[in-house]
Amino acid sequence: MAHVRTSLRVSCSFHRCLDIRPPSIKTLLPSRGPSPSSNPKLLPTTSLLLSRHSSNMTTYSIPKTQKAAIVESVGGTLTIKDNHPVKQPEDLKPGECLVQLDCTGVCHTDLHAAKNDWPIPAKTPLIGGHEGVGIVVAIGAHTQDSPVKLGDRVGIKWLAYSCLDCEACRKGKEQVCEKGQYSGFTVDGTFSQYVVSYVSHVTPIPDGIASPEAASILCAGVTVYRAIKYSGANIGDWITIPGAGGGLGHLAIQYANAMGLRVIAIDTGAEKRDLCLKLGAEKWIDFRESKDLVKDIRDATGGPGPHTTVITATSPAAYEQAIDYLRPGATMMVVSLPAQGKLSCDIFFTVTKGITIHGSYVGTRQDAREALDIAARGKVKCYYQLKQLDALKETYEGLEKGTVVGRVVLDMKQ
Ligand SMILES: [Zn+2]
Ligand SMILES: [Zn+2]
């Protein structure tokens, strides 16, 4: 590899502390990421981007167009295009980076964004997607203190950007930043071969986890990981997971197990039952077969009900039932986002049982690293079907019908 050189540290005021060393063999060939040698678009070339400092810098050539799935207008249909423009390195702003995607997960949120059925409208035209894994192929000129460098394998998650300076950010709640930007919602997401993101917010992907397995940890994984973390549940406590056989739920079972909790999986159908039990759920309840769900859940815990519930099902009924079956002092983690759902609960019993209702929204950059670290150590495994971008429409249909078991991950290298 002729391009391997020693690290070059630039100390001018623009690139203070920015380590712009040429990609080493290791960074050019991330352990599970795409191989530049097998992809002509990734062949190293002389950099234009950083030529101000080093005319012989190694970087990547970027195509002018790419394949992308686009919703052109509010309520419009999804179209797969082959000629969508790629933002060129010289057009990146300071702090922005261009990531060539290896793969991306498909989340229920993407379906809501495409249908625009949430109270807050998505941008249009919209490229959805917020569970992308790929490599950094360009960084905007004059970017300072970048925590990532060219060739790094990184993740794109729902929270694309936060200001890091508002009260929420200062208090470690960056996911509710007043200036937050969201991948595949307020900024274009990962249903394209290249995506623009921010060096401060892309998530380094640890070694030891394949890109398709890491993809869904970036939203589904971090969402349930944080919810369980903040539920206050202790080792040996009971947790119910309504929606346990779905994208979030099947990861929640494993994170709960890793934290020493006892899992009651709630969902429907033999395929989801088998997956939940295989992943370590101690009890399984099919909500369609159950004649008295509240009683069945309480009975599964020996009577008093679970200590917590992380609700990943998108049916508002799942929230109403929880107040009835939770034990006194329990916590309900509100996670899934039904389109028009209202949280309806009996105030008397919420008060007298001392139930805590806690809305938990994705996670911080730190939560994402923790969730990925647990997965990379083999404690949590995403069950996914790998499909092509062209399969996005049918995936949305499956999500709408509730027939997607685990996760669908799209291969973006084609
Ligand atoms: Zn998501
Ligand atoms: Zn902020």
UniProtKB/TrEMBL annotation:
One of its GO terms (cellular component) is cytoplasm. Keywords: Metal-binding, NAD, Oxidoreductase, Zinc. Its EC number is 1.1.1.1. It comes from the Eukaryota. SUPFAM superfamilies: GroES-like (SSF50129), NAD(P)-binding Rossmann-fold domains (SSF51735). Its cofactor is Zn(2+). InterPro entries: ADH-like_C, ADH-like_N, ER, GroES-like_sf, NAD(P)-bd_dom_sf. GO terms for molecular function: alcohol dehydrogenase (NAD+) activity; metal ion binding. The keyword Metal-binding applies. Belongs to the zinc-containing alcohol dehydrogenase family. This is alcohol dehydrogenase. It comes from Cerrena zonata.
